[in-house]
Design a protein that fits this description.
binds flavin mononucleotide; NADH Oxidase; oxidoreductase activity; YdjA-like; NADP; 6 helices
């Protein structure tokens, strides 16, 4: 797919099924992530891949984290729902920001760079016909989840990119650039 076409029409795929992306498609997605803009080339990111039965372990981890947070308030129905979340896609990429103290690259710039990396991966998935959706949820900010996924003190979760075969195709909305772009200083009427 032409690059501009992919950039202009990318949309998320909420409903995903098997098969998941091939090794080549995953490599292409990760290679795109590695080309995100990156002040001082710190490479402030790394990624995890969760697929197959590892999704069961990820679901168990999420339940354990919520159990530790909510205790008895967590009912069986909610537990089952949370446990099943990783089954919504064959493959999940976890995008992690790796923050390094730097005199001219503040933390926010490194977080933005890791976020840009996730967006690059989203577009690379779409360009290859791989369905993708960037998911998060309040659980992302739980320390237990960070620990369970093996994040270090200097690392932050950016998001979960769910990948698979799209069940339905959703057209991108038509947005007018002029609604978002204006000259500075403002041009008087
Ligand atoms: C940081 C971030 C977190 C998100 N978390 C979720 C989420 O947890 N669940 C969800 O359905 N969509 C989430 N989204 C939104 C979807 O990924 C998607 O962008 C949105 O549904 C709009 O669809 P589109 O990408 O096709 O325009 C998140 C997006 C971002 C950037």
């Amino acid at each position: 797919m032409d690059a501009l076409h992919a950039l202009h029409t990318r949309s998320s795929a909420n409903l995903l099924c098997e098969p998941g992306p091939s090794k080549l498609q995953i490599d292409n997605i990760v290679k795109a992530g590695l080309r995100a803009c990156d002040h001082r080339c710190l490479r402030p990111w790394r990624y995890l891949i969760i697929q197959g039965s590892a999704r069961d372990s990820f679901g168990d981890l999420m339940v354990d984290v919520l159990q530790a947070r909510d205790g008895a308030a967590l009912d069986e129905k909610t537990k089952e729902k949370v446990k099943g979340k990783p089954q919504r896609a064959p493959t999940i990429l976890v995008v992690i920001a790796k923050l390094t103290p730097h005199p001219s690259v503040p933390e926010i710039e490194q977080l933005l760079s890791a976020g840009a990396s996730a967006q690059m991966m989203m577009t690379a998935a779409y360009a290859q016909g791989v369905g993708a959706i960037w998911r998060s949820g309040g659980i992302m900010f739980e320390e237990g989840l960070r620990q369970g996924l093996g994040l270090s003190e200097n690392e932050r979760l950016i998001g979960f990119i769910y990948l698979g075969t799209p069940k339905v195709s959703k057209p991108a909305p038509e947005l007018d650039p002029d609604d978002f772009l204006s000259a500075w200083p403002a041009i008087p009427d």
